[in-house]
Amino acid sequence: MSADPNCIFCKIVAGQIPAKKVHEDDRVVVFHDIAPWAPVHVLIIPKQHIASMTEVTDADAALLGHMNVLAPRLMAQLGVTGGFRQVINTGRDGGQEVFHLHMHVMGGPRPWAKG
Ligand code: 5GP
Ligand code: ZN
């Protein structure tokens, strides 16, 4: 499976740097974000190095479907009952900082809620 030796998320996939993993299978790794924006904030990443959504092809459709199907299951496993958000940032203007595709999944009481 393709990896980029300079990519921090490829290093997490390889176990070269630690992460609080919540799920791993043949296609993805899921771990807690190091700087959470919500009470529960995990990142679903493909094991293969795909830099961003701009690199995705039809061959990745099943992988993206898998990531979407996992999100609600993992939120339920992590005790999130009131709903969650899924976010993929793409490119500089999309706020992407790590150029290895990742889906943020954020749940728990909303810190962004008014009042
Ligand atoms: P982006 O802005 O690229 O969509 O989000 C990157 C996310 O990765 C950020 O929320 C950031 O906190 C998280 N992150 C960056 N480096 C690490 C790391 O080494 N470990 C973990 N667990 N999360 C990281
Ligand atoms: Zn990578």
Automatic annotation (TrEMBL):
Q: What is this protein called?
A: Histidine triad nucleotide-binding protein
Q: Which residues form the HIT domain?
A: 8-115
GO MF term list: catalytic activity
Q: Where is the active site?
A: H102 (tele-amp-histidine intermediate)
- PROSITE patterns xrefs: HIT_1 (PS00892), HIT_2 (PS51084)
Q: Where is this motif: Histidine triad motif?
A: 100-104
Taxonomic superkingdom: Bacteria
Q: Which organism does this sequence originate in?
A: Ideonella alba
Lineage runs: Bacteria, Pseudomonadati, Pseudomonadota, Betaproteobacteria, Burkholderiales
